[in-house]
């Protein structure tokens, strides 16, 4: 049996490859966010598109169902796809998210959206840096954060019918804490999931997209939670 290629790699070489992998992850995440933001801005500034999407209450529901189906499909099957297919599905998902995100321009002022985005970017960056550099094993955070995530999802669904303001704010602040924690946790898990020695391959690209999707979701959800707190309504 031939020794694994990584057995010949020094710690510095391993760290350098992990760093290059994380750069690719962040690049894909940024591409997804740019697609989402660009589509949301374009739609919000195109009245016929806004009427098409939000003039019929069924259309937003269909878009949300399509988003949910697409993100579950990508998350569960990305490593079974070709690299080009994984890329296409990721960008398509980001674009669909942009269509529904255009609604926030109807609800919040552009200035508050911009300021919230900057706060989100700073918070996300700090926690992702912590997750990447810390020597502490964050594995134990996983089950706690997952349970918290399930809790706020259930509470959010129930509150659609209750319309309780106290529940709304508890979910919002808990959501901020959970997605801040998930940013650090996911960053560390993504760093560790990189298969050393396959840099530049299709598998490497799919791993980067898989990681980018997780961080993209953390960023988007953290932004939405902070927008509830910081956003100035029109």
TrEMBL record:
List residues traversing the bilayer. 21-42, 54-75, 87-107, 113-132, 144-162, 168-185
Q: Which InterPro entries match?
A: Bax_inhibitor_1-related
Q: Matching CDD domains, A to Z?
A: BI-1-like_bacterial
Q: Which GO terms describe its cellular component?
A: plasma membrane
Localization per record: Membrane
A Pfam family: Bax1-I
Q: Keywords for this entry? A: Membrane, Transmembrane, Transmembrane helix
The way it spans or sits in the membrane comes to: Multi-pass membrane protein
Q: What is its main location?
A: membrane
Coiled-coil regions, chain positions: none
Q: Which family does it belong to?
A: Belongs to the BI1 family.
Which PANTHER family is this protein grouped with? BAX INHIBITOR-RELATED (PTHR23291), PROTEIN LIFEGUARD 4 (PTHR23291:SF50)
Protein name, per record = Inner membrane protein ybhL
What is the organism field in this record?
A: Nitrospina gracilis (strain 3/211)
What's the gene?
ybhL
């Amino acid at each position: 049996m031939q020794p694994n290629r990584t057995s010949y790699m020094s710690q510095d070489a391993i760290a350098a490859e992990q760093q290059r992998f994380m750069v690719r992850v962040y690049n894909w995440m940024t591409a997804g966010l740019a697609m989402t933001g660009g589509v949301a801005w374009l739609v919000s500034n195109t009245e016929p598109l806004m009427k098409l999407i939000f003039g019929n209450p069924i259309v937003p529901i269909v878009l949300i169902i399509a988003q949910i189906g697409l993100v579950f499909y990508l998350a569960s099957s990305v490593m079974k796809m070709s690299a080009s297919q994984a890329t296409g599905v990721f960008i398509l998902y980001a674009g669909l998210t942009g269509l529904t995100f255009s609604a926030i321009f109807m609800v919040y002022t552009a200035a508050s959206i911009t300021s919230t985005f900057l706060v989100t970017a700073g918070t996300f960056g700090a926690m992702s840096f912590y997750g990447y550099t810390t020597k502490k094993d964050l594995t134990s955070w996983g089950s706690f954060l997952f349970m918290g995530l399930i809790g706020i999802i259930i509470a959010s669904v129930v509150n659609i019918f209750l319309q309780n303001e106290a529940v709304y704010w508890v979910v919002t602040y808990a959501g901020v804490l959970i997605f801040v924690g998930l940013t650090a946790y996911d960053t560390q898990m993504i760093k560790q999931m990189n298969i050393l020695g396959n840099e530049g391959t299709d598998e490497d690209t799919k791993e980067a997209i898989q990681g980018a999707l997780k961080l993209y979701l953390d960023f988007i959800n953290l932004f939405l939670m902070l927008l509830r707190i910081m956003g100035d309504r029109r």
